[in-house]
Design goal:
Layout (H helix, E strand, L loop, with lengths): L1 H20 E7 H6 L1 H14 L6 E7 L1 H9 L5 E6 L7 E14 L14 H5 L3 E4 L4 H13 L14 E5 L2 H9 L5 E4 H9 L4 E3 L7 E8 L9 H10 L4
Helix pairs in contact: 3-9
Protein backbone atom coordinates (compact mmCIF):
# COMPACT_ATOMS: atom_id res chain seq x y z
CA UNK A 1 0.00 0.00 0.00
CA UNK A 2 2.86 2.36 0.76
CA UNK A 3 4.35 1.62 -2.65
CA UNK A 4 1.02 2.31 -4.37
CA UNK A 5 0.61 5.55 -2.39
CA UNK A 6 4.11 6.63 -3.39
CA UNK A 7 3.35 5.99 -7.07
CA UNK A 8 0.07 7.88 -6.82
CA UNK A 9 1.77 10.85 -5.17
CA UNK A 10 4.46 10.87 -7.85
CA UNK A 11 1.83 10.72 -10.57
CA UNK A 12 -0.13 13.62 -9.11
CA UNK A 13 3.06 15.66 -8.76
CA UNK A 14 3.96 14.97 -12.39
CA UNK A 15 0.45 15.97 -13.48
CA UNK A 16 0.62 19.23 -11.50
CA UNK A 17 4.03 19.97 -12.97
CA UNK A 18 2.78 19.34 -16.51
CA UNK A 19 -0.13 21.77 -15.99
CA UNK A 20 2.34 24.37 -14.70
CA UNK A 21 5.03 23.97 -17.36
CA UNK A 22 3.12 23.28 -20.60
CA UNK A 23 0.31 25.43 -21.95
CA UNK A 24 -1.53 25.03 -25.25
CA UNK A 25 -2.92 28.42 -26.29
CA UNK A 26 -5.17 28.98 -29.29
CA UNK A 27 -5.96 32.57 -30.23
CA UNK A 28 -7.65 34.55 -32.95
CA UNK A 29 -5.21 36.40 -35.17
CA UNK A 30 -5.67 39.95 -33.89
CA UNK A 31 -5.01 38.84 -30.31
CA UNK A 32 -2.23 36.43 -31.32
CA UNK A 33 -0.40 39.10 -33.29
CA UNK A 34 -1.00 42.20 -31.19
CA UNK A 35 -1.47 41.15 -27.54
CA UNK A 36 -0.33 37.61 -26.78
CA UNK A 37 3.43 38.13 -27.22
CA UNK A 38 3.48 40.68 -24.40
CA UNK A 39 1.19 38.57 -22.21
CA UNK A 40 3.35 35.46 -22.62
CA UNK A 41 6.60 37.32 -21.88
CA UNK A 42 5.03 38.72 -18.68
CA UNK A 43 3.78 35.23 -17.71
CA UNK A 44 7.27 33.75 -18.04
CA UNK A 45 8.86 36.65 -16.15
CA UNK A 46 6.40 36.15 -13.28
CA UNK A 47 7.24 32.42 -13.12
CA UNK A 48 10.95 33.21 -12.93
CA UNK A 49 10.38 35.68 -10.10
CA UNK A 50 8.62 32.90 -8.17
CA UNK A 51 11.54 30.56 -8.82
CA UNK A 52 9.46 28.28 -11.07
CA UNK A 53 10.47 26.97 -14.51
CA UNK A 54 8.88 29.04 -17.30
CA UNK A 55 5.93 27.40 -19.00
CA UNK A 56 6.42 25.80 -22.39
CA UNK A 57 3.95 27.67 -24.63
CA UNK A 58 2.42 26.00 -27.69
CA UNK A 59 0.57 28.75 -29.57
CA UNK A 60 -1.85 28.24 -32.46
CA UNK A 61 -3.19 31.29 -34.31
CA UNK A 62 -6.43 30.89 -36.27
CA UNK A 63 -9.74 32.66 -36.81
CA UNK A 64 -12.24 32.77 -33.93
CA UNK A 65 -14.43 29.99 -35.33
CA UNK A 66 -11.47 27.61 -35.64
CA UNK A 67 -10.29 28.47 -32.11
CA UNK A 68 -13.70 27.49 -30.71
CA UNK A 69 -13.64 24.22 -32.68
CA UNK A 70 -10.22 23.35 -31.26
CA UNK A 71 -11.59 23.67 -27.74
CA UNK A 72 -14.51 21.42 -28.45
CA UNK A 73 -11.99 18.84 -29.71
CA UNK A 74 -9.77 19.18 -26.61
CA UNK A 75 -6.82 20.57 -28.57
CA UNK A 76 -6.14 23.64 -26.37
CA UNK A 77 -6.04 24.62 -22.70
CA UNK A 78 -6.84 28.33 -22.99
CA UNK A 79 -7.96 30.46 -25.90
CA UNK A 80 -8.74 34.02 -26.91
CA UNK A 81 -11.34 35.18 -29.42
CA UNK A 82 -13.07 38.33 -30.63
CA UNK A 83 -16.60 38.44 -31.94
CA UNK A 84 -20.13 39.67 -31.34
CA UNK A 85 -20.92 36.83 -28.88
CA UNK A 86 -19.23 34.13 -26.83
CA UNK A 87 -18.78 30.78 -28.61
CA UNK A 88 -21.16 28.03 -27.57
CA UNK A 89 -19.98 24.97 -25.66
CA UNK A 90 -17.12 26.68 -23.79
CA UNK A 91 -16.60 28.83 -20.71
CA UNK A 92 -15.72 32.46 -21.37
CA UNK A 93 -14.70 35.69 -19.69
CA UNK A 94 -14.37 39.18 -21.17
CA UNK A 95 -10.77 40.27 -20.67
CA UNK A 96 -10.70 43.48 -22.70
CA UNK A 97 -12.26 45.70 -25.32
CA UNK A 98 -11.25 46.61 -28.83
CA UNK A 99 -12.53 48.88 -31.58
CA UNK A 100 -12.68 48.19 -35.30
CA UNK A 101 -11.88 51.05 -37.66
CA UNK A 102 -12.66 51.68 -41.32
CA UNK A 103 -9.30 52.52 -42.89
CA UNK A 104 -8.11 53.66 -46.31
CA UNK A 105 -4.93 54.96 -47.88
CA UNK A 106 -4.52 58.75 -47.70
CA UNK A 107 -5.06 59.01 -51.48
CA UNK A 108 -8.45 57.25 -51.32
CA UNK A 109 -11.48 59.56 -51.94
CA UNK A 110 -12.88 58.74 -48.50
CA UNK A 111 -9.80 60.21 -46.83
CA UNK A 112 -10.90 63.72 -47.89
CA UNK A 113 -14.55 63.41 -46.89
CA UNK A 114 -15.86 66.07 -44.55
CA UNK A 115 -19.14 64.29 -43.83
CA UNK A 116 -19.23 60.90 -42.11
CA UNK A 117 -19.84 57.87 -44.28
CA UNK A 118 -23.29 56.30 -43.88
CA UNK A 119 -23.70 52.62 -42.95
CA UNK A 120 -25.58 52.09 -46.23
CA UNK A 121 -22.67 53.49 -48.26
CA UNK A 122 -20.25 51.25 -46.40
CA UNK A 123 -22.49 48.21 -46.92
CA UNK A 124 -22.50 48.82 -50.68
CA UNK A 125 -18.72 49.23 -51.03
CA UNK A 126 -16.35 46.35 -51.90
CA UNK A 127 -13.99 45.86 -48.97
CA UNK A 128 -10.74 44.06 -48.33
CA UNK A 129 -11.96 41.53 -45.79
CA UNK A 130 -10.96 38.63 -43.59
CA UNK A 131 -12.28 35.17 -44.42
CA UNK A 132 -15.56 33.70 -43.15
CA UNK A 133 -15.26 32.58 -39.53
CA UNK A 134 -13.11 35.57 -38.60
CA UNK A 135 -14.11 37.41 -35.42
CA UNK A 136 -13.37 40.72 -37.12
CA UNK A 137 -15.64 39.90 -40.03
CA UNK A 138 -18.44 38.62 -37.75
CA UNK A 139 -18.19 41.66 -35.45
CA UNK A 140 -18.40 44.03 -38.39
CA UNK A 141 -21.41 42.20 -39.86
CA UNK A 142 -23.26 42.34 -36.52
CA UNK A 143 -22.50 46.05 -36.07
CA UNK A 144 -23.62 46.83 -39.61
CA UNK A 145 -26.89 44.92 -39.10
CA UNK A 146 -27.57 46.96 -35.94
CA UNK A 147 -26.79 50.23 -37.71
CA UNK A 148 -29.15 49.35 -40.54
CA UNK A 149 -31.86 48.53 -37.98
CA UNK A 150 -32.11 44.81 -38.69
CA UNK A 151 -33.43 43.13 -35.50
CA UNK A 152 -32.41 39.55 -34.64
CA UNK A 153 -34.44 37.10 -36.70
CA UNK A 154 -35.08 39.56 -39.52
CA UNK A 155 -33.92 39.01 -43.07
CA UNK A 156 -30.11 39.10 -42.88
CA UNK A 157 -28.32 42.16 -44.16
CA UNK A 158 -26.60 41.29 -47.44
CA UNK A 159 -22.87 40.98 -46.81
CA UNK A 160 -20.84 43.90 -48.19
CA UNK A 161 -19.19 43.01 -51.48
CA UNK A 162 -15.67 41.65 -51.01
CA UNK A 163 -12.81 43.06 -53.06
CA UNK A 164 -10.36 40.55 -51.54
CA UNK A 165 -10.84 37.92 -48.82
CA UNK A 166 -7.61 37.21 -46.95
CA UNK A 167 -6.79 34.86 -44.10
CA UNK A 168 -4.66 37.11 -41.87
CA UNK A 169 -4.91 40.59 -40.41
CA UNK A 170 -1.42 41.37 -41.70
CA UNK A 171 -2.43 40.44 -45.25
CA UNK A 172 -5.54 42.67 -45.11
CA UNK A 173 -3.46 45.58 -43.82
CA UNK A 174 -0.85 45.07 -46.57
CA UNK A 175 -3.56 44.96 -49.25
CA UNK A 176 -5.02 48.28 -48.06
CA UNK A 177 -1.55 49.84 -48.07
CA UNK A 178 -1.09 48.55 -51.63
CA UNK A 179 -4.29 50.29 -52.74
CA UNK A 180 -6.74 47.38 -52.87
CA UNK A 181 -9.48 49.41 -51.18
CA UNK A 182 -11.00 50.10 -47.76
CA UNK A 183 -10.99 47.58 -44.92
CA UNK A 184 -12.31 47.18 -41.39
CA UNK A 185 -9.44 46.36 -39.02
CA UNK A 186 -8.70 46.39 -35.31
CA UNK A 187 -7.29 49.61 -33.93
CA UNK A 188 -4.58 47.44 -32.40
CA UNK A 189 -3.40 46.40 -35.87
CA UNK A 190 -3.31 49.84 -37.51
CA UNK A 191 -2.47 52.30 -34.71
CA UNK A 192 1.11 52.76 -35.94
CA UNK A 193 -0.06 53.23 -39.55
CA UNK A 194 -2.52 55.90 -38.43
CA UNK A 195 0.10 57.70 -36.34
CA UNK A 196 2.53 57.72 -39.30
CA UNK A 197 -0.24 58.74 -41.76
CA UNK A 198 0.18 55.64 -43.88
CA UNK A 199 -3.53 54.99 -43.36
CA UNK A 200 -6.51 57.23 -42.62
CA UNK A 201 -9.47 56.38 -40.40
CA UNK A 202 -12.88 57.05 -41.95
CA UNK A 203 -15.75 58.11 -39.68
CA UNK A 204 -19.00 56.20 -40.17
CA UNK A 205 -22.19 57.67 -38.72
CA UNK A 206 -24.20 55.60 -36.22
CA UNK A 207 -21.96 52.54 -36.46
CA UNK A 208 -20.66 51.11 -33.18
CA UNK A 209 -17.61 48.99 -33.90
CA UNK A 210 -16.55 48.32 -30.31
CA UNK A 211 -16.24 44.63 -29.43
CA UNK A 212 -15.28 42.36 -26.57
CA UNK A 213 -12.12 40.28 -26.34
CA UNK A 214 -12.78 36.98 -24.56
CA UNK A 215 -10.77 34.22 -22.95
CA UNK A 216 -12.31 30.76 -23.42
CA UNK A 217 -11.74 27.33 -21.88
CA UNK A 218 -13.63 24.13 -21.09
CA UNK A 219 -14.46 22.56 -17.74
CA UNK A 220 -15.07 24.47 -14.52
CA UNK A 221 -15.86 28.13 -13.97
CA UNK A 222 -12.13 28.88 -14.02
CA UNK A 223 -9.35 27.03 -15.89
CA UNK A 224 -7.46 24.27 -14.04
CA UNK A 225 -4.60 25.40 -11.83
CA UNK A 226 -1.30 25.99 -13.53
CA UNK A 227 -0.13 28.10 -16.44
CA UNK A 228 -3.64 28.49 -17.94
CA UNK A 229 -5.04 30.00 -14.75
CA UNK A 230 -1.91 32.12 -14.27
CA UNK A 231 -2.23 33.56 -17.78
CA UNK A 232 -5.95 34.28 -17.37
CA UNK A 233 -5.27 36.04 -14.05
CA UNK A 234 -2.57 38.14 -15.73
CA UNK A 235 -4.66 39.28 -18.70
CA UNK A 236 -7.72 39.92 -16.47
CA UNK A 237 -5.77 42.18 -14.12
CA UNK A 238 -6.83 45.85 -14.38
CA UNK A 239 -4.25 47.99 -16.18
CA UNK A 240 -3.29 51.40 -14.87
Amino acid sequence: MLAVATELDAGLAALRNRHHTRLRVSASLTIAEQLLPGWLVALQAAAQRRGEPPAEIVLTAANSETVAQQFRQGAADLGFVEGPAAPTGVRSRIIGRDELLVVVRPDHPWAERRQPLSPAELAATPLVSREEGSGTRDSFAAALAAALHRPPGATPVPAPPVALALSTTAAVRAAVLAGAGPAVLSELAVSEDLACHRLTCVTVADLDLHRALRAIWTGGTIPPSGAARDLLAHVSRPRR
